């Protein structure tokens, strides 16, 4: 109902804008002696209306107020210096210019609301999305939900849980060497490399796409995590010798940090990630 009302107001504003333009054309054609002056003022009126469209109605009306004072001063000057009388033509632009501004603002109200709503929906969708659209991997939003579940299982059934944080070394420099259309593909290849190194009941997450950072939740202790780390690095070395160096013209290196879950020291999923990232400093 609200959208229909906004659409109706926008349509009425559009019709009113067309009517005002028609009135301006008739007025200008009926005053051939002031043709140049009227054309200049009409252009100024359109300019003020466009400023309103790209800013706010308050800014547009403020500029219109400045125009009215300026135009009024010009009319007074002509009256005093040339002895001209103030006629109906003088009041036409004093009324028409702010009217054009207000009507254009009403006309564009609906589209501005739609744009704002679209931005809100996009932000909401990005916040609620749990899967990366390019790699089909679960993202940091999904990690927060799953980590709470996994840590609860770990505590209840006394099953060790370890988080691996995997990051591509020198990614900020490497991404300058890889064409933009291959960046997502490189992230996908590394994701597949990590995915193939874990069991089906372990979970892989793309924590930060821009910084090429993954998270692996493993139901194992630190010793078991070391086996997974060695397996990932071995597979990466194989791919560097065969596929990666040919495909991307660079050798990719990984830094991997691991931390085992302890309820006493890890309060929430963010803390889990932070502590695992600290371990990256020791993997050079």
Automatic annotation (TrEMBL):
<feature type="transmembrane region" description="Helical">
    <location>
        <begin position="61"/>
        <end position="79"/>
    </location>
</feature>
<keyword id="KW-0812">Transmembrane</keyword>
<protein>
    <submittedName>
        <fullName>GGDEF domain-containing protein</fullName>
    </submittedName>
</protein>
<dbReference type="InterPro" id="IPR029787">
    <property type="entry name" value="Nucleotide_cyclase"/>
</dbReference>
<dbReference type="InterPro" id="IPR000160">
    <property type="entry name" value="GGDEF_dom"/>
</dbReference>
<feature type="domain" description="GGDEF">
    <location>
        <begin position="129"/>
        <end position="280"/>
    </location>
</feature>
<keyword id="KW-1133">Transmembrane helix</keyword>
<feature type="transmembrane region" description="Helical">
    <location>
        <begin position="91"/>
        <end position="108"/>
    </location>
</feature>
<feature type="transmembrane region" description="Helical">
    <location>
        <begin position="35"/>
        <end position="54"/>
    </location>
</feature>
<dbReference type="InterPro" id="IPR043128">
    <property type="entry name" value="Rev_trsase/Diguanyl_cyclase"/>
</dbReference>
<feature type="transmembrane region" description="Helical">
    <location>
        <begin position="12"/>
        <end position="29"/>
    </location>
</feature>
<dbReference type="Pfam" id="PF00990">
    <property type="entry name" value="GGDEF"/>
</dbReference>
<keyword id="KW-0472">Membrane</keyword>
């Amino acid at each position: 109902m609200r959208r229909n009302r906004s659409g109706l107001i926008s349509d009425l504003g559009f019709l009113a804008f067309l009517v005002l333009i028609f009135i301006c054309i008739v007025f200008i054609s009926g005053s051939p002696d002031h043709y140049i002056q009227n054309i200049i003022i009409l252009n100024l009126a359109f300019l003020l209306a466009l400023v309103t469209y790209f800013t706010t109605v308050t800014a547009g009306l403020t500029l219109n107020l400045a125009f009215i004072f300026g135009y009024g001063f010009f009319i007074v000057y002509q009256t005093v210096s040339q002895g001209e009388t103030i006629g109906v033509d003088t009041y036409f632009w004093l009324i028409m210019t702010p009217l054009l501004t207000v009507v254009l603002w009403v006309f564009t109200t609906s589209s501005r609301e739609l744009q704002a709503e679209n931005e809100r929906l996009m932000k909401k969708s990005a916040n609620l999305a749990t899967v990366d659209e390019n790699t089909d991997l679960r993202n940091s939003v999904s990690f927060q939900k799953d980590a709470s579940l996994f840590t609860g299982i770990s505590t209840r059934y006394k099953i060790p849980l370890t988080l691996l944080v995997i990051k591509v070394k020198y990614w900020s420099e490497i991404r300058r060497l890889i064409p933009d259309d291959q960046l997502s593909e490189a992230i996908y290849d590394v994701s597949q490399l990590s995915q193939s190194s874990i069991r089906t009941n372990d979970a892989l997450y793309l924590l930060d796409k821009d910084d090429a950072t993954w998270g692996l939740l493993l139901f194992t202790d630190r010793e078991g995590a070391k086996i997974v780390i060695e397996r990932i690095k071995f597979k990466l070395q194989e791919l560097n010798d065969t596929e990666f160096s040919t495909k991307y013209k660079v050798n990719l290196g990984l830094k991997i940090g691991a931390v085992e879950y302890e309820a006493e020291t890890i309060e929430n999923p963010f803390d889990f990630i932070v502590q695992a990232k600290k371990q990256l400093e020791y993997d050079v």
